[in-house]
Structure formats: C-alpha cells, structure tokens
Write a structure and sequence with these properties.
The protein is mainly α. It is built from one helix and no strands. The mean pLDDT is 90.
Length: 54
C-alpha cells in the first residue's frame, strides 16, 4: 500500500489521533476510579444515594 507523497503527514495524523484517544480513555478510567473512591468516602460518612430504594 502506497500512501503517496503525503505519507509522513498521514502517519503523523493517525499517530496524533491515536495518542488523543488513548489519553482520553486513560483520563476516563482514572476519573472513574476517583469518583468511585469519593462515592465510597461519602457513603462511609452516612450519605446515601437517593435513587436507591430500601
């Protein structure tokens, strides 16, 4: 497969896009774990979720 004279730009664009997607996925995973930790701390202090029916 030949990408022609713009091969460097095409490869660089895909590399940047991949880096951005990987960064966003990492950010979401880290934020999710942080939010779970905060929610656990709140529940330990007695805060309850309104959506939970008991």
């Amino acid at each position: 497969m030949s990408l022609g004279p713009h091969a460097d730009f095409i490869v660089a664009a895909y590399a940047v896009a991949l880096a951005v997607v990987i960064g966003l996925v990492a950010w979401v995973v880290l934020d999710y774990s942080e939010q779970r930790r905060v929610l656990g701390d709140l529940e330990e202090r007695g805060a309850r979720r309104r959506s939970r029916r008991q």
